[in-house]
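User: I'm curious whether this sequence folds into something compact or stays loose and floppy. Could you predict its structure so I can see for myself?
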Amino acid sequence: MKRFLVVIFALGLMSNVAMAQEQAAQTPSVTFPMVTVPESIIQPQERAKYLGEHFWDNVDFATASDALLEQGLIDMASIFPLLSADVMTSSMAAWVERAGAVKGALKRVLTLGDKYLYDTASPLYNETAYRSLLQSALVSKSIDKADKEPYQKQLVMLEMNNEGMSAVDFQMQLTDGSKAQLSDVKSPIVILFFYSPENLDCKLQRFRLTQAKLVNYLQRAGGVKIVAVCVEGEKSAWEKFVADSPAEWLHAYDAAGKIKGDNLYDLRTLPRVYMLDENKTVLLKNTKADNIEQYLIQLIQSAEGAAE
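Assistant: Here's the prediction. I'll summarize afterward.
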């Protein structure tokens, strides 16, 4: 069963890889020079480890085109589900080391990482991989201090509000003008929805949350609370967004602009959705309605299994 789930997960990511390849169709067609895993390495995890740590061995970073590096990252993403956290770290470290040996190459690698791994609109979005890449790159002597600064800021944001951590508390203004803290919200599950009221993607995410059947059932039963927080835009636009949204949601407005201004959460793109438990521990970060539904199903199944 475990092997089956790994295969299904990998197939899902391969679908995303295909989407990325389609997006890159305007670039010249290139073939990435893949390494060959020794036949003596038999176990799947060990083969994935070797491939991850030697993925870029056949690339000459002095002559490699942007298209080749881009294709390499797209291909590399297909093995991410097979890499443990430690192997992901060592794989990114090996990539940084090889690129760092050629002047300017590591900056190109970071640009690609930002485009494919850190942009939530990318089909290859993967904070774990990007965080590992930054952790290795920022200790490299191949990048000047000034060039590191924007990536250092990104890494700080990536280290905050991760799954298993306590979500940063903040103050918000409610529709009646009163003030409240995130920590004041009492519910077994809290869905934190940051948005901009005139952003189309935010409106789409609102629609998906309203259509999530299990979320809405549990909300009516008192097991889920959706906290929708407007973090930018005019107050009049927020009021219209609230009027078009479910009344059961807790609607709030960051009147002081502190959530985004003080970098309490990574909100460089919107919407952003977090799923928290009753203690405001992050269960899911930068997630979507479908993922929340799946997580809730697993919670219910686990509870039923424990009760038997």
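Summary: The chain is about 50% helix and 10% strand. Residues 2-23 form the longest helix (22 residues).
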